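Title: [Solved] Cysteine-rich CWC 3D structure

Original question kept below for reference.
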Amino acid sequence: MIKEKRCPNCQKAFACTTECWCSAFPPIVPIGEQGDCLCPSCLKSAIKARISSWMTALTPQKIKTIQTMGKPSSLIEGIDYTINDQGLFVFSGWYLLRQGKCCGNGCQNCPYHKLKEK
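Solution (posted by the thread starter after getting help):
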């Protein structure tokens, strides 16, 4: 069943189904904060803001919470990775934390390497 909704932030119409597109996003922005579902663009912005606040001051508890989310089922550009000028994927520190441990490949945004430096 497809249900049309309106984003409470931008008023844009979007479709919501039982197998919703939003399930690919990390579950870190509770629906209750906005009162209803956000459109894809607004949800992505809200999640990026939440991730940014979590990643700026990592604590052992935040790291554990992020790691318990496990690996994402699909990658989302701007959240899990960016594409550099050479066309290569650059994984975010957020994505790398969700992997659960350092892979040892010297990733550009490796949060584990930065944590060891402290």
